[in-house]
Amino acid sequence: MFGFFKSKKAPERQLNHARDLRVGDMLTVIDSFAYPDWLKGQTLKVTAVQTYQYQHSAEYEFVLESDSGKIVFLQIEQDDGEEFANFSVKIQRDDVDAIFTLDEFARIFDEESLTHIDTHSRPAAFERFLGQSYQQNQAPYVAYFYEQDYRNRTLPRYQDESGEVCEVIELISPDEKHGLNIEVWDGGETEVSLTLTRPLSDIVELFPGAGS
To answer: What is the pTM of this model?
Structure first.
């Protein structure tokens, strides 16, 4: 009979799928040799959720930070009924030269046909993120980037000037487990990322952020 006087506690948020991650949430990656030491078995915190808008779709990217301050990007991919975790790291010009050589890498921009490129060397820092070779399987395409989470909001009209525009070039390894992603921004700034594609089940734990 005294239940009426009990304080009502808000139900805790349930986090059952990586696609529902929000800023402040955390996830744990499986302890596997498929990952570099700084990533395997680690618990990472979501520091941002970003949006890439294409002509007929959108993708959402989680910015993850490790305890040591390393940054890795995560996108959730669905393909033929399976789900994959695409972990990406950005590399610098010197890294590109060491891995591919700048002359070989430049062919991606210079050749009219879709490009094939081989890995020249495998620096230890990026070994798990590298394939032996990569093939460009589609022409470059345009994306609009927002440093905002649009999952539960109406996206701006495509080609709206509120987003940052970039041209995206993707190359994939023959086994489709590694990717090379190039983004050319307005003004010519170029960002290069290496992607490791793994089963989504490699994310073994999810933790709602404080206050969820």
So the answer is: 0.91
What is the residue-wise DSSP string for 152-210? TSPPPPTT-TTSEEEEEEEEE-TTSSEEEEEEEETTS-EEEEEEEEEEGGGEEEEEPPT
| More confident site: 150 or 1 | 150
pLDDT of res. 6: 55
Q: Torsion angle, CA of 15/199/27/22, rounded to 10 degrees?
A: -50
Helix and strand counts by DSSP (H, E) for the chain = 2, 12
Closest CA to 119 of 139, 106, 104: 104
Pairing state between β 133-136 and 116-118: antiparallel
At position 102, the amino acid (one-letter code) is L
Mean pLDDT score of the chain, rounded to an integer? 92
Residue 112: predicted pLDDT: 79
- What number of CA atoms fall less than 13 Å from residue 15's CA on the CB side? 20
CA–CA separation, 56 and 80 (whole Å): 19
Give alpha helix (H) positions in the chain.
93-100, 102-110
Q: Is 127 left (phi over 0), alpha (psi -120 to 50) or beta?
A: alpha
pLDDT digit string (tens) for 1-33? 455 555 556 567 899 999 999 999 999 999 999
- As given in the structure block, the two tokens for residue 26 are 């955390």
